[in-house]
Amino acid sequence: MEDLKIIGEKNIFFIPNVNFSIETGICELDGESYLENTFAFYAPLLKWLEDYMVYFNKPITFNFGLSYFNTSSSRSILDILNTLKQYEKQGGSVTVNWKIRDWDQDMKQDVEDFSIDSNLPIHTLSC
User: Fold this and answer.
1) Distances (CA, A) of 112 to 32, 81, 97, 120
2) Which of 26, 65, 100, 103 is deepest in the core (most CB within 10 A)?
3) According to the model, what pLDDT value does residue 10 have?
4) What is the CATH number of the domain that holds 107?
5) Number of domains in the chain
6) Percent of the chain with pLDDT over 70
7) Where is the SiaC family regulatory phosphoprotein domain (predicted)?
8) How far apart are CA 95 and CA 73, in angstroms?
């Protein structure tokens, strides 16, 4: 198993930056997520998290910096949060942060909804 890094793209569709570190347990997902095939993009991210939880069993800090995501991406984001919640239920240490622009009330509401739906506290950070 190795770190997972994807450099984001802005073209017809928007691909977020991904930086998941085995050594630190810090996972970062930022940029914009507007994809043609959301499942194909997010499936390896979920697989990486699941493998990390089994093989390393160390604390995970997940930092979201998504400034935009479409509806299909929101389902995959919730899958990530539910996976993290399951890890927490099994005794794993999980911290979730989300960077939000002060003026972005819609994103604040979306993050609050994610926190409720996943039953996982999400710390919001101003940016």
Assistant:
1) 18, 12, 12, 10
2) 100
3) 86
4) 3.30.750.24
5) 1
6) 100
7) 15-125
8) 21
